[in-house]
Amino acid sequence: MASFGKPTTVHGINDSSKHTHRMGLHLNVLYAEDVAQVLGARKIVMDRPRACKQPVNLRPIFDDFHNTLRLKVALGIPLSNTQHVQKRLMYGLIYDCTMEKEADKVVRNPTAKTDLPVVREYGGSASARRLPTAVENGFKDLIQKDRKALIQIIYPKATRFACARTVKRGTGDRNRIDVACVYDKKYELTGFDGKGPCKTNADCTYFGGNCQNHLCYVPLNHP
After folding, report:
1. Which InterPro entries match (predicted)?
2. Together in a domain, 31 and 102
3. CA–CA distance, 149 with 92 (Å, rounded to integer)
4. Residue 71, CB half-sphere, CA atoms under 13 Å: how many?
5. Integer angstrom CA distances of residue 130 from 32, 73, 122
6. Does 83 fall in a domain?
7. How many domains does the chain have?
């Protein structure tokens, strides 16, 4: 059981579990199944989907990995048995399909120059039908081994991202998959807002935006 300070009621969660004696679910009393429900309630937020070129079955993996981590940080839920975090205000990452072009450039050419922050995941290997699982496992390994990558993925002020992958023939029936993700460039964050996850739109104090499932989202103004 984890403690997260002041109680904050979580709405929209089915209380028909074995803990129905708790009249209302609060973030400062989260059982394992409660955590799964809170994290599972989040949905992908996309912008300009017609510009997307990456496989449909990979986009949810890119999104789920990034924003589940960010939601955990917002709620103060440990990222792993050894990676504990302090709750803070977090922005959710909108998957911006127009950024896939830049991600594709850097995954195909590791020395390519870009003005955007980049996280690279190299060396996943699997049969063709298991490539999505290889991507997911590769991300999990990455944040255990690369602290800089983890810091970028959970950087509170980032609001948009996209990823791209390359697949190369490996040995036998296995292929090698490499992934690169790019993020919008924001001013350096000099201090964190430690009040915890947003509850209303008014809590989204960095750039404004809408509070959705305890993450703030900033719609892009474009035609």
Report:
1. CAP_sf
2. no
3. 17
4. 24
5. 28, 29, 16
6. yes
7. 2
Which residue, among 27, 42, 67, 24, has the nearest Cα to 197 in the 3D structure? 27
- pLDDT tens for 131-184 read 888 888 888 888 888 989 998 999 888 899 999 999 887 777 777 889 999 999
Nearest Cα to Cα of residue 123 among 166, 163, 69: 166
Name the pTM for this structure. 0.77
> Which among 208, 55, 58, 184 has a CA at the least distance from the CA of 118?
184
Q: Is residue 222 part of a domain?
A: no
Pull the structure tokens for residue 105.
């450039």
Nearest Cα to 207, choosing from 89, 119, 73, 96? 89
Chain-centre distance of CA 92, in angstroms? 7
CB 29 within 8 A of CB 75: no
